[in-house]
């Protein structure tokens, strides 16, 4: 019987070790619900899980698209103007992917494709919201009495507008599979549809759809993008608003572990100007974090903020204290956008804003991660 050469033995040892390590990583941190997820998507998933043990990535919605008093400037963000670094997580929105002419939709897709690719090339992370205009009536993405229709029942399988919804998802899927970095790889994205579904302000909100209808919508959306269209670069995030105090309440419309990669929460009220409650916010985040740990999912504080940031120590005395209070494992925390025209609608500081000194302390804290702190988050 021939014996293995030293080279062959070492080669086989490396191969077996690699498979063993991949398996151990999956066992320890879980894995994406897409079994065909790209290597970069899997790596992002695992690296976010590992980083969340001791750190949280800081995110800002529309950070590089526009900011306080400006729009469309290359490689600019208000956060970078203050700290020298972009946020680690850049929030974008697919709201412009339907409800307009083909030319406008194409322009919106092209603009976002560049923003996402540029973020990936710099080493940052992208999270995708979807303020989806009502596909069966007027009223936009908000619910408007006497105008809006309860669209969920129309667009789920068996609904009379289901084919319209599939066409909209076709456009999202085609776009997602076209977004690549300079390395030629598909860019991983955290896709967060139908957020704040436990409120009533959106047409997909709790008052306008049943639990069964919402779960059907979620499952079909994931299945169609992942299984029918072959979108393999999405991490799927589930994020209600803050209307819960128990795990049971949090999971009331949860579609099941096989349909969700990341659990999150949007919470402005508990950290806002009039109802500052670090303890309550931390309790709700702990429910999310504990569930993620138990089920080997990712967790995130998917939206928060204090409009106009009049509190000069909000970053360290409110947000950071909340994040650190319960030894949470949050992949990221994202604050909302800075409107380019409004003098008061902003959630991140810009040069001269009163919370800048405190934000620099927040930036310098070892717990927070910004884009310049990220190293190879898409590699194993």
Automatic annotation (TrEMBL):
Hydrolase listed as a keyword: yes
Annotated site (Plays an important role in maintaining the position of the catalytic nucleophile), which positions?
195
Residue positions annotated to bind substrate are 131, 201, 268
| Swiss-Prot/TrEMBL catalytic activity | Random hydrolysis of (1->4)-beta-D-mannosidic linkages in mannans, galactomannans and glucomannans
Question: Which GO MF terms are attached to this record?
Answer: mannan endo-1,4-beta-mannosidase activity
Q: Where is the GH26 domain?
A: 39-372
| UniProt-listed InterPro entries | GH, GH26_dom, Glyco_hydro_26, MANB/E
The UniProt entry's sequence similarity note says: Belongs to the glycosyl hydrolase 26 family.
The entry's protein name is Mannan endo-1,4-beta-mannosidase
> In which organism is this protein found?
Aquiflexum balticum DSM 16537
């Amino acid at each position: 019987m021939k014996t293995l050469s030293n080279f062959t033995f070492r080669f086989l040892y490396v191969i077996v070790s690699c498979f063993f390590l991949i398996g151990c990583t999956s066992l320890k941190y879980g894995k994406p619900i897409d079994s065909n997820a790209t290597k970069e998507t899997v790596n992002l998933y695992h690296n976010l899980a590992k980083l969340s043990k001791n750190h949280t990535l800081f995110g800002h919605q529309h950070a590089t698209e526009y900011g306080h008093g400006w729009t469309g400037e290359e490689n600019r963000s208000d956060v970078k103007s203050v700290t020298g670094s972009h946020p680690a997580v850049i929030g974008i929105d697919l709201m412009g992917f339907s409800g307009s002419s083909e030319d406008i939709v194409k322009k919106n897709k092209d603009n976002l494709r560049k923003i996402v690719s540029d973020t990936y090339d710099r080493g940052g992370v992208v999270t995708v919201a979807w303020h989806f205009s009502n596909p069966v009536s007027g009223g936009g993405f908000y619910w408007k009495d006497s105008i809006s229709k309860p669209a969920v029942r129309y667009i789920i399988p068996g609904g009379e507008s289901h084919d319209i919804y599939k066409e909209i998802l076709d456009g999202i899927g085609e776009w997602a599979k076209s977004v690549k970095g300079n390395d030629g790889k598909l860019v991983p994205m955290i896709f967060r549809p139908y957020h704040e579904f436990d409120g009533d302000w959106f047409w997909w909100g709790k008052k306008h759809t049943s639990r069964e209808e919402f779960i059907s919508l979620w499952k079909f959306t994931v299945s169609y993008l992942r299984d029918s269209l072959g979108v393999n670069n999405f991490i799927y995030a589930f994020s209600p608003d803050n209307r819960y105090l128990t795990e049971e309440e949090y999971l009331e419309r949860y579609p099941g572990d096989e349909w969700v990669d990341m659990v999150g929460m949007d919470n402005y009220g508990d950290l806002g100007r009039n109802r500052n409650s670090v303890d309550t916010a931390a309790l709700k985040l702990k429910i999310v974090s504990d569930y993620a740990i138990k089920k080997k999912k990712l967790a995130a504080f998917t939206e928060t903020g204090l409009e106009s940031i009049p509190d000069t120590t909000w970053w360290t005395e409110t947000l950071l204290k909340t994040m650190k209070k319960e030894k949470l494992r949050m992949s990221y925390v994202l604050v909302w956008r800075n409107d380019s025209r409004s003098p008061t609608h902003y959630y991140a500081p810009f040069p001269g804003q009163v919370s800048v000194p405190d934000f620099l302390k927040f930036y310098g804290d070892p717990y927070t991660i910004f884009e310049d702190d990220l190293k190879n988050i898409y590699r194993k």
